[in-house]
Design brief:
The protein is mainly α and 606 residues long. It contains 35 helices and no strands.
Length: 606
């Protein structure tokens, strides 16, 4: 018991009395009291007191004095004491006389002893006589015996009887911690099998039973309670339960606590708990330690822990060894480890193996591993399989590619959703294309955002033109998608956002986006920026951007430069850019540039 307050102060007040050297300690006083009680019971038993004989026998039985307990229990049993009959059965069972013990339990159970009925039911179950076991366990449970209710629930659950949960609940409500834990597990499994209807209630009830069992010291219940709280975001309380469970020896809790600490930034403490779990054979913790050392560049230590994980039966160990070898350029060893994990059913290892084979030019060997990984649920493998089929060029392969892209897209793969959207656009199915493009754009694909914006842009009615400098702040949805793509660095989207801003009359915004696109290498961005600058009176700077665009193959920019130099009187330079515009096109530009070139040539030869 904890003493609240300063002990010296309590000595001073006299409310805390320190035992003197000659006074007996509490344990000694307890021993003296038990000895006195035993003496009293012995004296009463010698006078033929049945209850005293029964209690004395039980006392000696608890102490382990079987020889001393047996005559008292037999005498009390002969006098009709059912508690003594039950205890005599326990004593005989401990001596190895199971059948004789069962006989005395039967006598006590018939006389109404719930404890004896429980013991008798356990006896019959151990011998495989389930009907007799159920009969006596039910007798015990219906009399309110907690252990009887739990044992009956366990028997019924073993048989798949629907009545098991009822008795498990009865035992749990009476404080049986294992029953509370198993009831919580059953509710957890049910929640996992159900749809959304009723799931929340099952999870909530499971949490309550986990909490009750954990509070009574059930370490696995504490582990599961911690997992529920962590999933909910209650990390502080989750950590407390993980710690409780880990201290009680639950390695999975130690591992989970390590991950919680790592996510909080405390890798040193995380490593301590992972080490503790890994040394007890937890493969997940060994993998975590391996990854931690790999991040620090300690590859030999990382490899040692990955091997420990593999030896503990965790296939992730082989996969991680493959990753480690691949990073070091040890391709042959990486393939060996990937194969080992893949043959054990590790889907990501199968995908990694296929990629490795593909990089080595073994397309035939890669395909079955992509298929195996994809069928096992690897989203990346499904996408990669789509790429593999798409690269073959036949109509049938294109259909197969689309099928795998759709499968990956349904699982949330952004690039797969983009590919499905593009395919649907080619087919003319704008509704499906839009749905997939929205998924991909929402997942962060700049290309999908741009294509979605283009699709929406084509549908909207034309807007009235605005004078430059007249700012209109209303933006359509398609412009918002263009801006999202532009902000992710998509050059065509940046040009389009600039064009829309210019159409609204927002010169500053237009110039910002044109410049961003031009500096990223967009020739259209450079050309449009030049137009904007020339319109604002900055023709020399415009010529700089047109030069950049023309050098990148933009025919209109070359024609603009030819006109600039012609106006300046630099006819030879103008003719050079006109020649360039003729080559670059398009047709109408080539035609105009050709006329300008001929005129400049005549002027130069005159």
């Amino acid at each position: 018991m904890d003493v609240m307050g300063d002990k010296a102060t309590l000595y001073g007040t006299g409310r805390f009395v320190q035992p003197s050297g000659g006074e007996a300690s509490r344990d000694e006083r307890d021993d003296m009291g038990e000895a006195a009680e035993e003496l009293r019971l012995r004296l009463a038993a010698e006078t033929g007191d049945t209850e005293a004989m029964s209690v004395l026998g039980a006392m000696l039985l608890r102490r382990g004095d079987l020889d001393g307990a047996e005559p008292h229990l037999r005498a009390a049993t002969a006098a009709g004491d059912r508690a003594a009959a039950n205890n005599l059965g326990v004593l005989l069972h401990q001596r190895g006389y199971a059948e004789e013990a069962a006989g005395w339990w039967r006598i006590a159970a018939v006389a109404g002893s719930a404890a004896a009925a429980h013991a008798l039911g356990r006896h019959y179950r151990e011998r495989g006589d389930e009907p007799a076991a159920e009969y006596w366990l039910r007798q015990s449970a219906e009399q309110g015996h907690t252990l009887g209710a739990y044992a009956l629930a366990d028997l019924l659950e073993h048989r798949g009887d629907v009545g098991a949960e009822q008795w498990m609940r009865v035992a749990a409500e009476r404080g049986h911690r294992e029953a509370a834990y198993r009831l919580a597990r059953a509710l957890d499994r049910r929640a996992g099998q159900e749809d959304e209807t009723g799931t929340d209630n099952a999870v909530e009830e499971a949490e309550q039973w986990y909490r009750q069992a954990a509070a009574r010291g059930h370490r696995r219940a504490a582990l599961h309670l911690g997992a529920i709280l962590e999933k909910r975001g209650d990390l502080k309380e989750a950590g407390r339960w993980y710690l409780t469970s880990a201290k009680d020896g639950e390695t999975r809790a130690a591992c989970a606590l390590g991950f919680l600490l790592r996510d909080a930034g405390d890798t040193e403490s995380a490593a301590v708990w992972w080490l503790r779990a890994a040394q007890e054979g937890d493969g997940n913790a060994a993998n975590a330690l391996g990854a931690l050392h790999a991040e620090r560049g300690e590859t030999q230590t990382a490899e040692r822990w990955y091997r420990a994980a593999l030896n503990a039966g965790d296939d992730n160990g082989a996969y991680n060894l493959g990753l480690l070898c691949a990073e070091q350029g040890r391709t042959a060893q990486a393939e060996q480890w990937y194969r080992r994990a893949a043959y054990a059913g590790h889907r990501e290892a199968a995908n990694a193996l296929a990629i490795l084979l593909l990089q080595g030019g073994d397309t035939t060997g890669a395909e079955p591993w992509f298929s195996k990984a994809a069928e096992a649920g690897s989203v990346d493998a499904a996408f990669n399989l789509g790429i593999l089929y798409a690269g073959r060029g036949t109509a049938r392969d294109a259909e197969m590619a689309l099928r795998w892209y759709e499968r990956a897209a349904a699982a949330g793969h952004t690039e797969a959703a983009l590919q499905v959207g593009i395919a649907r656009l080619r087919e003319g199915d704008e509704q499906e294309a839009e749905r997939h493009l929205r998924c991909a754009a929402g997942g962060g694909s700049a290309e999908a955002a741009y294509r979605l914006a283009t699709l929406l842009d084509a549908r909207r009615p034309p807007e009235p033109a605005h004078e430059l400098g007249e700012v209109v702040h209303e933006k359509t949805e398609c412009e918002e998608w263009y801006e999202r793509a532009a902000s992710q660095g998509h050059r065509r989207a940046q040009v389009r956002v600039g064009m829309l801003a210019a159409a609204r009359g927002d010169v500053v915004e237009a110039a910002r986006w044109y410049r961003a696109a031009a500096e990223a290498g967009s020739r259209n961005g450079a050309f449009n920026l030049g137009l904007l600058l020339a319109r604002e009176g900055s023709e020399p700077e415009a010529a700089v951007w047109w030069t950049r665009a023309a050098d990148a193959g933009h025919g209109r920019a070359a024609l603009r430069l030819a006109l600039v130099y012609a106006r300046r009187g630099e006819l030879a330079e103008g003719q050079k850019w006109a020649d360039r515009a003729v080559v670059l096109g398009p047709a109408e530009v080539a035609e105009r540039a050709g006329r300008l070139r001929d005129a400049l040539r005549e002027e130069l030869s005159a």
